Amino acid sequence: MITCVYFAWVREGIGCESETIAPPADCTSLADIIHWLKGQSPGHHRVLADPSALRFAINLDHATLESPIREGDELAIFPPITGG
């Protein structure tokens, strides 16, 4: 199981703050998980359609689509952060 935590418009588009997922065993990278998540609902598909518009963290460390992800990890998905 992997815990997914969503922030800002990602949370609003998917319709929940977090969820626990059980992706197939061949989902070993963040890109694999995102591809699998897109098929879970229309909201997931819409929000995750362009991963380059999002930022990711695995276990509180910034991650890229090539990052490995494993059972028990926490995946955070959020929009880019800007400051002023």
How would you characterize this protein structure?
- With 84 residues, the protein is an alpha+beta fold.
- It has a domain at 20-71.
- It is built from three helices and five strands, in the order βαβααβββ.
- The protein has helices spanning 8-14, 30-38, 42-48, and strands at 2-6, 18-21, 55-58, 61-63, 74-78.
- A five-stranded mixed sheet has the order 2-1-5-3-4.
- Strand 3 and strand 4 form a beta hairpin.
- The chain starts with a strand and ends in a 6-residue tail after the last strand.
- Pfam families: ThiS (PF02597).
- It comes from Iodidimonas nitroreducens.
- InterPro entries: Beta-grasp_dom_sf, Mopterin_synth/thiamin_S_b, ThiS/MoaD-like.
- This is Molybdopterin synthase sulfur carrier subunit.
How can the largest sheet be summarized?
Answer: 5 strands, mixed
Bin the helical content: 25-40%
Instruction: Detail the poorly predicted runs.
Output: none
Strand order in the largest sheet: 2-1-5-3-4
Mean pLDDT: 94
Tell me, briefly, the overall form: globular
User: How many E-type strands?
Assistant: 5
Protein name: Molybdopterin synthase sulfur carrier subunit
InterPro entries: Beta-grasp_dom_sf, Mopterin_synth/thiamin_S_b, ThiS/MoaD-like
Pfam families: ThiS
Organism: Iodidimonas nitroreducens
